[in-house]
Amino acid sequence: MATVIIPTPLRKFTNNNSKLAIQASSISEMIHHLTNDFPELKKHLLDANGKVPSFINIFVDDDDIRNLQQEQTVIKENSTVSIVPAIAGGAYRI
User: Which 3-state string (H, E, C) describes the chain?
Assistant: First the structure.
């Protein structure tokens, strides 16, 4: 099974799990399993069109899925999938 790393802001929707073992062959299948098991994640991982929004970065091992096949990116048994939400805020000072 692949390991999915859950970022701290989303752990409250996964019973505080930081890692989950998921049996999936693609990112879309992984998201389907995650949102079935943890329905509150859906609004944080998918936009209104059912796509991963631009402010959510997903990596399979060290590769951004945007540089691969996006939601159709293959996940292997020993893959590590990292979900990385964009962080905003702070102030720019010179």
Answer: CEEEECCHHHHHHCCCCCEEEECCCEHHHHHHHHHHHCHHHHHHHCCCCCCCCCCEEEEECCEEHHHCCHHHCECCCCCEEEEEECCCCCCCCC
